[in-house]
Amino acid sequence: MADENDDFLKPKHIKFFERCLQILPSRYCSLDTNRMTIAFFALSGLDLLNALNRIEKDKDKIIQWIYSLQILPNEDGSNICQCGFRGSSTNTVNSQKKRNELKLDSGHIAMTYTALTSLLILGDDLGKVNKFTVLSALRNLQQEDGSFCCVPEGSENDMRFVYCAACICYMLDDWSGMDVEKAVEFIQKSQAVLRRWDRTRSRLGGSWLVSGGSTFCAIAALALMNKLKTSFTPKQYKRLQRWCISRQQSGFQGRPNKPTDTCYSFWVGATLKLIDAYHLSDAQCNRGFLMETQDAITGGFSKWPDHTPDALHAYLGVGGLSLLKEEGVLSMHAALNISQRASEHLDSLHSKWKN
Hints:
This protein is mainly alpha-helical. It is built from 14 helices and six strands.
């Protein structure tokens, strides 16, 4: 719950993210294979709050831990499609024979994205990332329709993983990891199919995926590919702006007829930033909702007011405040979902690689 003055409780949020890096409640046990993503929420949350100095003594250990979850190629390259970053050591298999039998120990596209972003946040130079195998494994995950699966063993394929693929290629400054034109075509077709669904079912307005999170993934991926301005007509662009603005109630909802939710202050808010329409939103109402979902005792943000805070909503709540230019919160690179400071570090690495 928020305090009576609706103050942003920055010190409590810093402590919340510190705890996420140290010990988690038992309810997080089911997320053990996603430990890399939880670490990203905590690290990027501390970064946005300009509090990375609080973990300075542990920085090298965290970097070592991230690299320990990188799957490197065998001498014969037989596992190249399995390379990338794991989410944790839960499914680690020590021998290649067992790995081939179980087919569990492989890189995950979302964990690779959050591993790379976490390394950037910590100031690492990505020097120990095996770029060739990461990009080779990424190519293997792309499907004929341009979408991506998350693991080589096969999985659902949707816009989340197109976004992760675009981020990975952008951060490694190498687009050989994906067929960009196919990915753009997949995004365009997704918009067209769902626009027809909108007209026949509920007239939602023709967003990219009738969901704030998926819409962000599509728009951010196009922005990173430098295809945002050429992928749709001015009429489609206006329709998208209108659909996103219509998602604001007090905070933002993910789609029509759903309650407002802390995370969409970032997902929809960042989309509005990328399509030059954030200024059309009501900043005071958005901030007011976020203050209702922050916990005045433990810190962190919850999905809804008077609910328990969690790592994802805590991070995206801070991200929403960053977009609002809240005092004490650093600005963000909206498409990459990291601080502008981390993005500038990435730019410096790109310059070094080119030279």
